[in-house]
Amino acid sequence: MITKRIIPCLDVRNGRVVKGTNFEGVKDVSCPVELAKFYSANGADELVFYDITASFEERKLFTEILTRVAENVFIPLTVGGGINTVDDFDRVLKCGADKVSVNSGAIKNPMLIKEAAMKYGNQCVVISADIKRVDGQFMVFAKGGRENTGMEAISWIKKCVELGAGEVVVNSIDTDGVKGGFDIELLSLVCQAVNVPVIASGGAGNIQHFVDLFNAIPNIDAGLAASIFHFGEVQIKDLKAELKKNNIRVRL
Amino acid sequence: MIAIVDYGVGNLFSLISSFKYIGADVLVTSDPNEIKKCDKIILPGVGAFEDARRKLSDTGLDKIIIEEAKNGKPLMGICLGMQMLFEKSYEYGEHSGLGLLRGEIVPMQGVIPAELKIPHIGYNPLIFKKQSPLFKYIKDGDCVYFVHSYYATGCDDSVIATAEYGKEVTAAVSKDNIMGCQFHPEKSGDVGLNILRAFCELEVTR
Fold first, then answer.
1. Residue A86: which region, alpha, beta or left (left: phi > 0; alpha: psi -120 to 50)?
2. I need a labelling partner for A28 at 20 to 30 A (CA). Which of A68, A95, B98, B159 fits?
3. Beta-bridge partner residues of A90
């Protein structure tokens, strides 16, 4: 049976990974290629690269870096950040990305999902949504979580899947950065609403949080995190060993 | 030299990179003469069966591939490339394949339990069914990365590995010099690279 995926997310600006700590055997933890190799060799099932560059020059550098990662790391690579057009899909896919994650670009123009899915297949299109509770309702936020779009989250995600999104990344703003565990309530609702892979994001603070996630929602596919991996608080190998001990299937 | 057949379907970046990484000489080509000169052939493919099959016929590459395969040249299809090695596919209609292996491609929909997601996406352990030189460097239970909605059936004579997804789904096939992987070896970490390495090391006897 299929295994649960563990996915580190790397923010890249100016050709460098933004946060990171020292890992044994990694000379330069800010180097995306070095870090990607390290994660891949240590059990990451997939990598997400988030492009947080601001200028055209930096974006060009990002695609160069992506190419070098893809030449050296042979697990699925997802790219997000600044994806607004089908040309943006084309740009990163040519550099070796396997999937492209859209967020604000899809909020501005939902048909982007459909166009990209028709051209590259549903498996290539990932919808990433930043979600926050507002007056007891789950709402979609734009601009990195700063702006309430006024859209209810579950219906938005369902719409994106109907348009052709083949995977959903659910980032809970309420749990993000708190390190108190994933947002089980929100993630359960999303998993009940759609029949494509769902990736949990926001809130992982320790190994137990992943165990809790997969136990609470047996049909969730993956757990994504950034800082706990980058700062070496959780080693993916230890995490997977613990998941296995809890009878959760992982790739070892 | 290994020919990667380029017929305008899918992104070959990772496949080319993975062969380069293991130190294999590959040639990405759509030229029949170049394909004939190479001693092994990789048939890649992503997307819809009908479209890919039509592109192979339009370019005449289907005839070359069949001819070379019948001459005994090692041929490995990957993902949709594997599916095209079979007799036919029922993906959106009924389409003939290259007919190099017995069997057909059918939807997973309706065959696997409804609560399982389609496409079948993710890492799934291989269940070995037969010994194969392709498995020289890997072991039963090693995980490989799948992305597909259709699978090969009626191919008991060629199946060498399956993966369990509501039922046992054909994962790898091999019969004489014709081989195929439903999964993506170029996205399966070291396990995948080791399958490609084993393919590169196959002895060519003809």
1. alpha
2. A95
3. none
Which of the residues B38, B68, B79, B120 is marked catalytic? B79
- The model's pLDDT over A126-162, given as tens digits with 9 standing for 90+, comes to 999 999 999 999 999 998 888 999 999 999 999 999 9
Taking the Cβ of residue A76 and every Cβ of chain B, the question of whether any pair is shorter than 8 Å is answered with yes
Q: Which residue has the higher pLDDT, A164 or A25?
A: A164
- A207: Cβ contacts below 8 Å, ≥ 6 apart: A234, A238, A239, A242
Domains of chain B are 2-201 (3.40.50.880)
Q: What is the pTM of this model?
A: 0.94
The total number of structural domains in chain A stands at: 1
Question: Could you give the ipTM of this predicted complex?
Answer: 0.92
Instruction: Note whether A127 and A171 are within 8 A (CB).
Output: no
Examine the pLDDT at A69 and tell me if it is beyond 80: yes
Specify the 3-state DSSP secondary structure of B65.
Answer: helix
Partner B contacted by A218 (CB < 8 A): no
Spatial contact of B75 and B43, defined as CB atoms under 8 Å apart: yes
